[in-house]
Amino acid sequence: KIKRYLNAVLPRDISIKECKQVPLSFHARFSAKGKTYIYKVYTQPDPFMYQRGWYISQKLDLENIAEAVQLIKNTENLISMSKKGDYLREDVEIREFRFKYDGFLLKFEISASHFLRYMVRKIVAHVVHVGTGRITIDTFKQILDSKDPARALFIAPPEGLYLKEVYYLPEDEQL
User: How many Å from the N-terminal Cα to the C-terminal Cα in the chain?
Assistant: First the structure.
């Protein structure tokens, strides 16, 4: 009944898939065991993607992007990819980071134990700028090694960011 009611009164761009009873101690943010985000970058003008992704007109070097993605996977401390002072739980465990490019849409999917504020957008922005040649992989590595959010150079626009899934219980984790 609750699911049907919520879907009837919520705007059409929101859909309730499931309702579960949880303990009173449950907190939607702090009880999460992991999250997966998707970020979309499109490389050709498309009015249907307007405000649904980040438009990049520069040519992308997919090998450089793959190298930057691997660098993120191998970096233990990603503080430099967060908002300054946002260190509630700084030990972020990146569980999966992959990308797919079909010649039009570059889609990043990143899963982690949790994320710091602006982390996904900063990671994607730096990886994309490595792919366009705006920064080198060495510069990106120096930014990551600095562990200083003030050293980050870019942040991707919010329009391309989508929360795909939140994992609460160990059996919920699909990673």
Answer: 31
Alpha helices (H) in the chain, listed in sequence order:
2-9, 62-74, 119-132, 137-146
In order along its 175 residues, the chain shows pLDDT tens digits of 999 999 999 999 899 998 988 888 888 888 899 999 999 999 999 999 999 999 999 999 999 999 999 999 999 889 899 888 765 566 888 999 999 999 999 999 999 999 989 999 999 999 999 999 999 999 999 999 998 999 999 999 999 999 999 998 765 544 4
* Distance from C-alpha of 87 to C-alpha of 44, rounded to nearest angstrom: 37
Domain 32-167 annotated CATH 3.30.70.660: yes
Q: Compute the distance between CA of residue 4 and CA of residue 79 in angstroms, rounded to an integer.
A: 42
Q: In angstroms, rounded to a whole number, what is the distance separating the alpha carbons of residues 166 and 168? A: 6
Domain boundaries, the chain: 32-167
List, as own/partner pairs, every contact residues 72-76 make where C-beta atoms lie below 8 angstroms and the sequence separation is at least 24, other chains included.
Answer: 72/97, 72/123, 72/127, 72/144, 73/97, 75/144
* Pairing status of strand 161-167 against strand 94-101: unpaired
The token duo for 86 is: 């946002």
